[in-house]
Amino acid sequence: MRFLLYDRVLEATKGESMVAVKHVSLTEDHLGAGYAGRRLLSGSLLLESMAQVAGWLVHYSTDFTVSAFLCIIDRAEIVGELAPGKAMRVETRMLSLSKRWAQLSCAAYDEATPIARVARFNYVLQDITDPREIAAEENRFRYYSGWPLERIRAVPTEPVIS
Length: 162
Known about the structure:
- It is a single chain.
- This protein is an alpha+beta fold.
- The model has no long low-confidence stretch (mean pLDDT 85).
- The chain is globular and about 50 Å long.
- The chain is built from 2 helices and 6 strands, in the order ββαββββα.
């Protein structure tokens, strides 16, 4: 099972940007006792949520033909907090994309109030060549993004001959 820290992708533009939402509820075990007795989404989980959305933008922008591995987080700032009952909007932008490297910026908001920002996420990229693996990754994205079933493609069961 994967631990997703966003609930739905709201907008996605290949090579440019992605916007997702994360709703925080009291039933989330990772809120624990919180900070000074307050139940808040931790800074590390805020960053993880942002990194997940940024990573999916890389996958989406490359038609799921690469795996993206986070290697650098540059100038991360937690400037607010997110309590249960709130929704966090995660906005990520592609700064650059090459065959082996991707750089993105990201910000998270509670409505219009900034919660966190990252000047630069750097991902190193590795090619995916198996058509079944590419299709499976695309389906995983569509499913995890909360997109309707008609937008999810079938994974080929037979090898694709090029």
